[in-house]
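stuck on whats below:

***
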Amino acid sequence: MEPLVEYDKVGILRSEHVALKDVCLRIMPGELVYLMGRVGSGKTSLLKSIYAEVPVSSGSARVLGYDLDGIAKKDIPMLRRRIGIVFQDFQLLPDRTAYDNLSFVLEATGWKDRMERHRRIEEALKRVGMLTKAFNYPHRLSGGEQQRIVIARALLNNPPLLLADEPTGNLDPETGEQIMLMLNEISQTGDTAVVIATHNHSYPRRYPGRILRCERKQLIDTEQQ
């Protein structure tokens, strides 16, 4: 199998400051990967570099067949269409129902066929157990339900790679546990690799995966220490 993500001695800058340097990373289909580290250690910068929101400053970076060090602007939307992204703060449109939030994403990524959009939305909502809440507005949903909608949104295009940035940060422990269980199941029931940035050390113990640590501007693979 080809790696979904392959970084070789990659440097990542944020506002002209070094966030991470000499990053070597390979992510394979179906992997569950934890990205650990303190706030400000570079976790989010690394995730953002994968979907080309933060540019790489050096080295070789390849994601889903795209070379990030020379990616054309017109290719970035196509790359992002193949990556599911789960944010800590949900980022749902408050004036649209859960269904319409998902429909908006499909329309924005080029799906013009209404029946195909409906099929994909229904499938994604079923997968996260939220089909009965499809026509609720975000303010009528609990934090955990909103995050389930966010995960459904991330799964719409059947992405081979799903990135979750502190996905339980705004949730109570019990709800956070449910979200982690769901992300773990996603990595185990298909070829989707799931990368979770978190500072919660209990999750890898309950849902084992590969652990990468951001420390002193470097990415450390604990399996290779």
In short: The CA atoms of residues 8 and 24 lie 5 Å apart. The longest strand covers residues 17-27. The chain is about 30% helix and 25% strand. Residues 173-188 form the longest helix (16 residues).
